[in-house]
Amino acid sequence: MKNKHIYLLLEIIKNNGNVKRLTHEGLRFSEIADLTCKVIADNYAEYIEDNIVLTEIGTQLLSTLTEDFKERDKNNWIIKENKSKIKKIDKDFIYLPNLKELSF
Predict the structure, then answer these.
(1) pTM (2 decimals)?
(2) How far apart are CA 100 and CA 15, in angstroms?
(3) Phi and psi (nearest 5°) for 63?
(4) 39 with 58: CB under 8 angstroms?
(5) What are phi and psi of 48, to 5 degrees?
(6) CA neighbor of 54 nearest in space, from 15, 17, 14
(7) pLDDT band at 95 (very low <50, low <70, confident <90, very high)
(8) Hey, where are the domains in the chain?
(9) 44: which DSSP letter?
(10) Which phi-psi region, left, alpha or beta, contains residue 16 (left: φ > 0; alpha: ψ -120 to 50)?
């Protein structure tokens, strides 16, 4: 697994976040489960009363990885959605609707 995936998982554990961030990175849920087991086996996180929390080693690793992977460019915080984007039309274009498609 990439260090970025480990960084994101540690950040999710620290902030009690959602693993959907990892699915946006292209990981499947089975890979997220394997990564979680690896993080726990490497003693970066542990189970405490049905919760997963960072250990001291995990907190140190997170602060180290934060320097490399934290997104500082605010333009990348929100992913652009192109599915709903419509193409630009001329300012001289006149739209005439199809009368058969209109219903009042």
Answers:
(1) 0.67
(2) 54
(3) -65, -35
(4) yes
(5) -135, 110
(6) 14
(7) confident
(8) 3-71
(9) S
(10) left
Per-residue tokens: 35? 């990564």
Given this model, what pLDDT does residue 44 score? 93
Q: What's the angle, vertex CA 47, arms to CA 12 and CA 26, rounded to 5?
A: 35
Geometric angle at alpha carbon 21, from 75 and 58, rounded to 5°: 105
Q: Look-up: residue for tokens 């540690």? A: 10
The string of pLDDT tens digits covering residues 72-82 is 777 777 777 88
**Coil/strand/helix, residue 54:** strand
User: Is 81 in a helix, a strand, or coil?
Assistant: coil
Given pLDDT bands bounded at 50, 70 and 90, which one contains residue 1?
low
CATH numeric code, 3-71: 1.10.10.10
Would you call 100 helix, strand, or coil by DSSP? coil
90: tokens are 């001329």
Helix, strand, or coil (residue 52): strand
Radius of gyration (Cα) for the chain, nearest Å? Answer: 22
Are the CB atoms for 69 and 4 separated by under 8 Å?
yes
